[in-house]
Amino acid sequence: MAVAKNTICLWYDKDAEAAARFYAETFPDSAVKEVFRAPTDFPSGKAGDALTVTFTVLGIPCLGLNGGPMFKHSEAFSFQIATEDQEETDRYWNAIVGNGGKESDCGWCKDKWGLSWQITPRALTEALSAGGEESKRAFAAMMTMQKIDVAKIEAARRG
Fold first, then answer.
1. What are phi and psi for residue 157, nearest 5 degrees?
2. 51, 79, 91, 116: which could join 38 in a potential S-S bond, CB 3.0 to 4.6 Å?
3. What is the mean pLDDT of the chain?
């Protein structure tokens, strides 16, 4: 199997394989490619445990590393998922939050492994890039939301 020139490496305590399988089930153009098992015991696991998992999220190559509890995910890294409409926004948001995740503000949420996701409807991106008062109104509306409500963004944009 060819290795991608650039791969995102995501550090997990011990659940990289479960996370990768969840992402593959949740997002299109996503798959678990290979699971590499530890040949011997290692500081945070035993021989035969998943050590690394290669997978894709919406076509982006990733490597999940089961490195133990010393490093945690933060908002300094997130996947931003552009959605076409409220239905797609709801589907991804509900999948992440409903699977042990946590809601945050302005379209951000975290999955149960602590990885941050921005579920961002294109309607929001377009409204913010419009500039002027239209953009200010859409931004003010977004600041009151957790999951983005497309109808409210479009209403704010119209004034």
1. -60, -40
2. 51
3. 96
* pLDDT tens figures, 72-126: 999 999 999 999 999 999 999 999 999 999 999 999 999 999 999 999 999 999 9
Contacts of 11 (CB under 8 A, 6+ apart): 65, 67, 71, 73
Asked if 17 and 10 count as a contact pair (C-beta separation under 8 A), the reply is: no
* Residue 22, phi then psi, degrees to nearest 5: -65, -45
Torsion of CA 142, 82, 108, 74, to 10 degrees: -140
pTM metric for this prediction: 0.93
Which residue(s) pair with 120 in the sheet? Answer: 82
